[in-house]
Each structure stands twice: as C-alpha cells, then as structure tokens.
C-alpha cells in the first residue's frame, strides 16, 4: 500500500493511536467482558445456541480489529483530504479564483474542452480516471442533470421554476463561482471532519425509510420484539422517531419530544418535552397538523441479551430511526436526513403489494449515491400470491436504482412478513432469552415467514455488526473516493487553465517588453528630433529677423519721401520723415513676426507628428503669438536736426559745398570762374587791395553757405533723422532686443509642444510599465497556480492510491470467510 501521510496527518496518526482508538476500546471491552467472550475451556461446554453466539462474537472481534486498522488509515486519509481542501480553499480565496468544470449551454463544450489538455494522462488509475471524466462528452440531452464534471463538489444551483442550473451558472461571474466553490469546499471539509468523528465513534444509526403504510413501524417493532412504535392502517408516522437503548439515557425509559434537534441535549430538559408512553400515539398522529416537534428520541429497554439485542450488543450501539412514510411532502426531509453522515445504514421498507413508487425510486437512487449499499426489506409478502414473479420484478427494480445492492441481493434484499413476529406488548411478559426466543414453534404463525424474518435479522446483524467496515467505513470510503476524484478533476481542470493563462501571459509579457523597448527608443529619438528641430527653427527665425532688421535699419530713410511744403513747415516735415522711417522698420518687424509664426507652425506640426501614435494631438493657437508690442522707439526732432553740424564727417564736404556755394553765388553774380576771378582780381587790384576785400568776400561766402544750408535743409533733415534713428536703435540694441523677442515667442510655443510630446511619451512609457507590471503579476500568479495545482494533484493522487488499496482489500467476501473460519 502506498503510504501518504502529510506531516500533519502523521501527527494525527499518533493522536489516533491504537490505545485511544474507539474500535480498539471495543476490543478491550469485549476481552474484559467474560460474559461475552468465554475462555477456551468454557467454549466446549457451551450449549449449541451459545456456542453459535460465541462464534459470532469471535467473528465480530476479528471484524473489529480489521475495522480498527482500516479506520485508522481512513482517518489519516480524511485528515489529508481535509488539509488538501483547506489549501485549495485558501488559494481560491487569496490567489486564484477557481474555475468550475462544467459544460454549459451558452458556452458549449468546445469552450471548456479547449481548455482541457487533450493529451492523455499516463500511468495511475486515478490520473486515468480524472482524464476520462474530464473528456467524457457532455450529455446535452440530460435535462435533469446539470452537466457538471463533479459529483461531491458539484454546485447545486436552482433558481425559480424556469431557470435551469446551467442558466443560473452561466449568469454568474468568475468571482461568484469561486465564492460558491469556496462554500462547497468548506462544507465538504466539514463533512470530512464529521466523517472522521463518525469513524471514531462506536455508535451506529440505522434509518428505516419507506413508502407510506409499507409497514416500517411494524418492522421496527418486530426487530425490537416490542411494541414501541404505534402501528395503524392509516398513515400515522409524521416525524422521525429514533429508538435508542435505555442505557443511553442513564437506564431510564423515556420519550423526548424535540422541537429543534440541533439544540437537543439529553441532559438539558429545556431542550425537549418528556412524553408519556400512553401519549406516544397521539403525539405522533397529532404532530402532522401541529408540526410542533421534529423528532422523538425513544429510550427503551431491550430485555434480550447482548447477542440477541439489536440496540445494545456489546460491540456497537445501534439506534433505529423510524421515518415518516415517503410522499411528495416528506421526500426531501427524509432524503436530507438520510444524507447525514451519522446514518450508517439505510433500511428501505417497501410493500410487496405496491412495489417501488416514484418517490421511493428517487429516494433510493439518491441514497445509493451516498451510502453505496442499502438494506431493502420487501414487507407484507404474505399478501402476495405469485411470490416468485413479485420477487423477480422487485429485484429488477432494485437493479435499476442501486446496482451495488442488487449485486448482494442475497444478503441485502429480504422478502418478509413483519406481522408474523410475536412482539412484547404493554404488560406482556415475553421471555426474551435466546433459548425462549428460538422457541418459535410456539408462535402461531407461518413458519416460513418466521424463517425469512430470522434470515433478515441474521443478514442485518451481519450488515450492521459483522460488516461494520462496510456499514460504517464504506460510506466514508465511498464519499472519499468520489471526493478525491472530484478534487483531481477540479485541480486538473484549473491547472490546465492556469497553464494556458501562463503561456498567454508569457507571450503577452514578451510582446509588452518588445513594445516597451520600442517605445523607449521612439521616445529618445522623438525627443532628440524635437530638440534639434526646435534649435534649427529658432536659429532660422533668429537669422531671418536679424538680417531683416539690420537691413531695414541700414536702409532707413532711403526710400522715404514726404511732401516738403517750404521752410515754414520744416518742423512738420521732419516729424513726418521720422514717422515714415520708423514705420518702415516696424513693417520689417511685423514681417519677421509673420515669418517666425510660419516657421513655428511648421515646426510644431513636425514635432506633433512625432507623437501622433500616442493619442490626441493638442491644437496650438498661434494667433495671439505676437500680440504684445515690441520695443517702442522714441526719436525726438530737434533744431540740430536741421543743420549739418557733423564736422568730423561732413565738415570738409560741407565747407567745400559752402565755398562752392559761395563761389557759385559769386560766379552766378559775376559769371566768372571763382579762382581765375580771384587770381585776376589779385593781379588787378593788388595784394593789399585784395586783403581789404577778403573780409567782405568771406562774409559773402558765409552768406552763401547759410543760403546753401537753408536750401539743402530738406536733405539734411532726412539724413540727420535717419542717422539719428540708426544711432538710437544701435544704442538701444534694438535689433538684438527684437530678434530675441521674436525668437523667444516662437521658442516658447515650440517648447510647449515639445514638452507636451515629452509628457505624452512619459505617460505612454509609464502606462507600458504599468501594463508590464500587471502582466508580470498575472504571469507570476498563473505560474504559482500551476505549481500549486501540480503539488495538490500529486497529494490527491497519493490519497487516491492509498484509498484504492483500502478499497481493494475491502472485499465483501473477506468478512464472510472470516466468519466462516471462526
Ligand atoms: N399483512 C401484512 N400487514 C402488515 C405487514 N406489516 C405491516 N402491516 C400492516 O400495515 C399497516 C401499516 O403498518 P405501519 O407499520 O403502521 O406502516 P408504516 O409504514 O409505519 O406507516 P406510516 O408510518 O404511517 O407510513 C398496519 O395495519 C400493519 O398491521 C405485513 O407484513 N403483512
């Protein structure tokens, strides 16, 4: 046998050591009880009946030992399964929303089928089983069954009358399904815990269910050889009546009527009402209407000895639970009752006259899923004329509802007449010793019926007592077997999804890394291009503006023409000239601004194009780019602007002009060449006379010069104003100022767009980083999920293998042989 014990379960194995194990306590009890286990010397002196009982007990002892061993293993497996369920539930809550394996309508098989890895799982039977279940084609014709791949972990979803489970399921989102699954996992873990408790417990509960009036109460009374349960032609059992040994109630025969079974405590009288024996019938019958109580606990004394008593026999304490007859109203409650893990055996009583009703079939098919084996009593057989035909028909029906029970029909299906058994009634003093009890010849009934009932009892004892492994361990084994397969399916299904998601996340991550690298390189080159473009465009604007302005300043006044209205208006003329010159410069400034605007617009377009893939491009308004005026030029007209005083530059010229002007005046006056006239005049008048003439001549020349200045004033003003403007602009560093202003405005706009581009890239990079981070998390998450599911699958597989060995060694016949050999 493969040994799989987690550290936790190994620890618990110590906790459940043989000395503390309930089953071994039974064995010790049996050994200590001399009245039950005679010594070998006593054995041969026993009368035949007691010798038979002694053999039965030896058989029981063997069974108990075997039971102890098996229960110990099963307890370990239950603990391991619980730990697996808890791990899965924790992962479901914290790390990975579990997917539910089912075949839906809206999402047909192919969706989920595609998730499942189609390569067959090799080796172990468990793996094969899981694989087969996952790949079984969906039975879409099945309208009743929700097409879940699970059995024990199946989610029970129903909403209203019209919605099918599939519809409800497909309306739920992933996290809702995970929550439902979590609830189911926790319920299942609790179920495992209570199975664990049940296995450690020595008491056994036997549920007697069946159709209305099938004779359940009569059968229970016959088993007890005592009229405990009221019997009526009319349906009378309306609530669950549990018959227990008086020892369970400190030896006091009593009836406890319980309203809320969950809060029932035998030692707390506030949790029940004590009913008198004579009130029992009325209480049961009246409860149908009042619905006051949910359950009765009937503590009664079985006067027969341990070998004969069913309630208290020294090996296991049995409680019989008589159920209300099955009908539409009671079916659900009884089915729920039967599902309780405390119920070790279900005895189903069917009337031979009626066969199985629909309610009976539904109950049996559900119960056989839970308990694996059912004990079937076909009662009222005395009323059947064609007994063999009836037997065959009923066995056929059993084959349909519980094939495993049918396989062991010889032991598990009995055709009897409960009324043929003599029972102790109120006041009767029946001798219940085995000797007296076996004196059945005295009972005035059909001997055959009594023999059949006796066989039934023998089988029932075997089933409940000698085959405890089957009756007590089998439900747990059966449940665990279904559960581990379910866990395997759930885990394998989710592992496949996690693997697919991991592959996808890996691909996406690589893709995202590539996109990120490209984006970062695009960002670098775009930023560099933007910077370069900005610099070159600003340079262009600068050069253009500087050249234009310099040229304009240099040429100022050259093409200016204003109307000269004579010397009287010379002041106005000078002002007009100045304004006109400044206008010309201003025009150049505006032209430069226009040029800068155009260049800026082109540059912006170019930069924006660099980031057009990153999102919406912001429109930039350049209309208000040069709304603020540039440097204001203030040049005042002065008197000096009318006279050429610039001796450094213009003096000689001016003097020459003046002399020439004087000469010209004289020439004009004498029509003689000034020099020859002067020479001739010197020769003619003599030097002394000339000296006397000099002063008037110079005066004359001065007058000539002044006359010339006044006549040339128009040009002088123009020159002087232009010169004045030039020097003013030079002094105020006008060209640089204006060039910088125009360039600065352009740069400002371009920079804004460049900054925006940088911002867009930064955001895009951040987005990409975030995306990558999320993908990395998703990749990690799915990777961890795959690892986790692999680990859990392997743990589950080990539990399954261990369980398989246990089931293999648990053949029904093994016990028969044990008993025969004893
Ligand atoms: N002939 C015959 N009558 C039987 C047999 N067993 C029970 N009865 C009769 O069937 C009737 C109903 O018996 P109950 O034991 O009350 O049946 P029940 O299944 O407990 O009935 P409810 O609890 O009300 O569903 C009674 O009149 C019994 O005497 C039997 O084996 N043969």
TrEMBL record:
Coiled coil: 490-522
Domain Dynamin-type G: start-end pairs: 200-475
Organism: Rhizophagus clarus
Segments for region (Disordered): 1-24
Gene Ontology MF terms: GTP binding; GTPase activity
Keywords: Coiled coil, GTP-binding, Hydrolase, Membrane, Mitochondrion, Mitochondrion outer membrane, Nucleotide-binding, Transmembrane, Transmembrane helix
Subcellular location: Mitochondrion membrane; Mitochondrion outer membrane
UniProt catalytic activity: GTP + H2O = GDP + phosphate + H(+)
Record-level GO BP terms: mitochondrial fusion; mitochondrion localization
Polar residues: compositionally biased ranges: 1-22
GO cellular component labels: mitochondrial outer membrane
Membrane topology: Multi-pass membrane protein
Subcellular location, principal: mitochondrion
Protein name according to UniProt: Transmembrane GTPase Fzo1
One family name in Pfam for this protein: Dynamin_N
Keyword hit for Coiled coil: yes
Stretches that traverse the bilayer: 693-711
């Amino acid at each position: 046998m493969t040994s799989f014990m987690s550290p936790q379960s190994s620890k618990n194995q110590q906790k459940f050591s043989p000395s503390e194990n309930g089953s071994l306590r039974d064995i010790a009890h049996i050994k200590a009880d001399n009245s039950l286990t005679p010594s070998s010397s006593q054995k041969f002196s026993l009368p035949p009946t007691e010798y038979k009982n002694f053999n039965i007990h030896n058989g029981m002892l063997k069974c108990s030992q075997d039971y102890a061993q098996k229960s110990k293993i099963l307890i370990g497996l239950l603990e391991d399964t619980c730990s697996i369920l808890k791990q899965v539930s924790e992962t479901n809550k914290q790390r990975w929303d579990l997917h539910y394996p089912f075949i839906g309508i809206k999402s047909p098989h192919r969706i989920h089928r595609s998730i499942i890895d189609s390569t067959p799982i090799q080796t172990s039977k468990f793996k094969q089983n899981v694989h087969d279940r996952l790949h079984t084609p969906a039975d879409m014709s099945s309208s009743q069954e929700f097409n879940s791949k699970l059995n024990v972990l199946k989610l029970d979803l129903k909403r209203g009358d019209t919605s099918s489970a599939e519809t409800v399921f497909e309306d739920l989102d992933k996290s809702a399904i995970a929550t439902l699954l979590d609830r189911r996992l926790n319920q299942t873990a609790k179920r495992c815990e209570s199975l664990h408790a049940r296995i450690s417990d020595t008491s056994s509960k036997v549920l007697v269910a069946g159709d209305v009036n099938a004779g359940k109460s009569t059968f229970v009374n016959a088993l007890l050889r005592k009229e405990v349960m009221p019997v009526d032609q009319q349906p009378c059992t309306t609530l669950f009546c549990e018959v227990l040994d008086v020892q369970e109630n400190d030896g006091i025969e009593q009836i406890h009527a319980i309203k809320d079974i969950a809060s029932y405590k035998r030692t707390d009288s506030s949790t029940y009402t004590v009913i008198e024996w004579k009130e029992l019938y009325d209480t049961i019958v009246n409860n149908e209407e009042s619905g006051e109580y949910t359950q009765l606990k009937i503590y009664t004394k079985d006067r027969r000895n341990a070998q004969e008593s069913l309630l208290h026999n020294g090996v296991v304490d049995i409680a019989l639970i008589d159920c209300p007859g099955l009908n539409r109203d009671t079916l659900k409650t009884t089915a729920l009752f039967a599902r309780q893990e405390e119920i070790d055996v279900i005895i189903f009583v069917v009337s031979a006259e009626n066969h199985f009703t629909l309610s009976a079939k539904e109950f049996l098919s559900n119960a056989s899923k839970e308990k694996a084996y059912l004990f079937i009593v076909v009662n009222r057989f005395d009323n059947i004329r064609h007994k063999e035909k009836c037997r065959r028909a009923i066995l056929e029906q059993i084959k349909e509802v519980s094939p495993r029970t049918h396989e062991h029909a010889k032991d598990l299906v009995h055709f009897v007449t409960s009324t043929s058994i003599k029972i102790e009634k109120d006041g009767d003093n029946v001798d219940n010793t085995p000797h007296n009890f076996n004196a059945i010849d005295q009972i005035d009934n059909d001997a055959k019926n009594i023999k059949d009932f006796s066989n039934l009892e023998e089988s029932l004892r075997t089933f409940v007592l000698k085959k405890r492994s089957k009756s007590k361990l089998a439900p747990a084994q059966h449940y665990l077997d279904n559960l581990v397969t379910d866990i395997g399916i759930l885990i394998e299904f989710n592992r496949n999804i996690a693997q697919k998601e991991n592959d996808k996340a890996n691909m996406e991550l690589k893709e995202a890394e590539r996109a990120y690298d490209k984006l970062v390189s695009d960002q670098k080159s775009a930023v560099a291009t933007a910077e370069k473009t900005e610099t070159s465009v600003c340079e262009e604007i600068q050069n253009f503006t500087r050249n234009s302005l310099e040229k304009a300043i240099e040429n100022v006044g050259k093409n200016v023409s204003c109307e000269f209205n004579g010397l009287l208006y010379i002041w106005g003329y000078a002002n007009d000239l100045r304004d006109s010159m400044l206008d010309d410069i201003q025009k150049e400034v505006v032209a430069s601004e226009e040029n800068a605007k155009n260049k800026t617009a082109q540059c912006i377009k170019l930069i924006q194009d660099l980031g057009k893939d990153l999102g919406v491009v912001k429109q930039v308004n350049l209309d208000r780019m040069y709304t603020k005026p540039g440097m204001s030029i203030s040049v005042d007209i002065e008197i000096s602007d009318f006279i050429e005083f610039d001796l450094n530059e213009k003096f000689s010229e001016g003097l020459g002009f003046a002399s020439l002007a004087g000469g010209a005046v004289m020439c004009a006056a004498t029509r003689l060449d000034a020099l020859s006239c002067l020479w001739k005049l010197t020769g003619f008048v003599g030097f002394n006379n000339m000296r006397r003439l000099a002063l008037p001549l110079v005066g004359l020349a001065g007058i000539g010069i002044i006359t010339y200045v006044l006549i040339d004033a128009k040009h002088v003003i123009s020159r002087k104003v232009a010169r004045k403007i030039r020097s003013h602009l030079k002094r105020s560093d006008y060209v640089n100022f204006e060039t910088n202003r125009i360039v600065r405005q352009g740069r400002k706009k371009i920079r804004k767009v460049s900054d925006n581009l940088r911002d867009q890239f930064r955001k895009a990079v951040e987005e990409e980083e975030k995306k990558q981070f999320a993908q990395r998390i998703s990749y990690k998450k799915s990777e961890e999920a795959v690892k986790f599911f692999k680990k859990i699958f392997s743990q589950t597989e080990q539990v399954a293998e261990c369980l398989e060995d246990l089931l293999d060694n648990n053949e029904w016949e093994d016990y028969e042989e044990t008993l025969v050999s004893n």
